[in-house]
Amino acid sequence: MRDKVTQAVLDSGLISPGQTVVCAVSGGADSMALLWALWSLKRELSLTVIAAHFNHRLRGDASDADEALVKQFCMTHRIPLRISSGDVALAAERTGDSLELAARRLRYAFLESLDCDRIATAHHADDNLETVLLNLVRGTGLRGLCGIPPERGRIIRPLLTCTKEDLTAYCEQHRLPTALDATNEGDDARRNRLRHQVIPALKKENPRLAQTALTMTTLLRQDEEDLRVQARAALDACHSKNGYSVPMLRSYPKSVLSRAMRLILKQYGVKNATSTHVEALVGLILSNDPSASVNLPEDLIAFREYDSLLFHQRGELRALLARELAIGMLDLPEAHLRVFVSPADVQLHTPEVFTVSPKGKLFVRSREVGDKLTLSGGTKSLKKRMIDRKIPKPARDLIPVLCDEEGLLGVWSFGEDKKRICPQGSLTVRFTPMEEEDAP
């Protein structure tokens, strides 16, 4: 087993000479074998090795006994040791996580807090097989069949090429003290049922099943990484100041497109993107609806702007607040526009300047259901005119509509309503862009 660890470390470049490695030690056979293997190799590989134990406080005296075993072993062999603990049950209650997930989060938070170059965990070939089968039972794609990676960030798994039998024999050979976690013996958890019932049956068909699965996951990880590289290149090629080009995205295979969407979600801070979220984004790209949208976690909205795919936080999308207008100046920061109202010296009728004689109060607002605008080509609903103009759906509520108490007078960037144009208007309403430094 020691040779397998040495080969894994050297061939895969998991650890470089001179680095400090923290070894996560629970007290079980797997982690004790890992600690002793790395400790025995520290001179040969020029390593600094530190043990780290996290007490989950889930098994009462048994948890404390595990801690005492690790502490005594490290003291006997003068191995530096870092110890911490956490109330996993309380953390699970507060977050709604399972005990297993809460324990993992607290444990890894402790390990990541330590000053080191690498963090070694004792995952082995049989763990990898169990993970693949668990994902298969739950339902998965290629990524879930890739098993446990040998390296992720600072986390490394030097024992992945070793089987459970290898580790047990190594512990016996070196007379390493080990703790037994009784929670691994019952069949309440799905992983335990796979370990005790399913895998032994499968190993009757193929005694080298763990090694076979390891070969498979290694090959599949290479395929997954190739697809991920293509996805990154696709995003770079399709990105522009207006978002992502939908026609260009459509030119990629769905396998690349779905991974590109996962990368985008990660960029926007969506940590737990599901296949449902990814499929919704792919559907948005392939949709014939030029104004479709998808609600995503973290208050993120993805929407089509005709041939562009855009992403915004929900709080960034605002409607124009209704405001009464009087002679003077008014800012519309949502629309990045400024409105000037003054007595009409001349009669101007342009898409940005209106000369009107309002009936009652004059005000500006967002579009409303039923708004119709009559221009030189006839009368159409404002919604239809915005669609014809290919104005993105999220931007439509930010286009100022000029009204009085009798109805719509005109729409900025479209012009005055022909039915409401007054030959001798009394007020001029002028819309101008806000200066960049004035905008919020």
User: Main sheet, how many strands, which sense, barrel?
Assistant: 6 strands, mixed
Radius of gyration: 32 Å
Average pLDDT rating: 89
Q: Give the proportion of residues in helices.
A: 25-40%
Calculate the terminal CA-CA distance, rounded to whole Å.
63 Å
What overall geometry do the principal axes of the alpha carbons give?
elongated
Strand residue percentage: 15-25%
Helical/strand content category: alpha+beta
Low-confidence segments, given as residue ranges, are: 436-440
The number of E-state strands comes to 22
How many alpha or pi helices?
A: 14
Question: Strand order of the main beta sheet, please?
Answer: 3-2-1-4-6-5
Quaternary assembly: single chain
Description:
- Strands 3-2-1-4-6-5 form a six-stranded mixed beta sheet, with helices on both faces. It has a five-stranded antiparallel beta sheet with strand order 7-8-11-10-9. Strands 12-16-19-20-21 form a five-stranded antiparallel beta sheet, with no helix packed on it.
- The longest helix has 30 residues, at 209-238.
- The protein has 14 helices and 22 strands.
- The chain has helices spanning 2-11, 29-40, 61-76, 88-95, 99-112, 125-138, 164-173, 190-205, 209-238, 246-250, 254-267, 275-286, 382-388, 393-396; strands spanning 20-24, 48-55, 81-85, 118-120, 151-152, 155-156, 239-240, 243-245, 293-296, 300-305, 308-313, 323-325, 328-332, 337-343, 353-356, 362-365, 372-375, 378-381, 401-404, 407-411, 415-416, 427-433.
- The model is unreliable at 436-440 (pLDDT under 50).
- It has 440 residues and is α+β, with helices and mostly antiparallel strands.
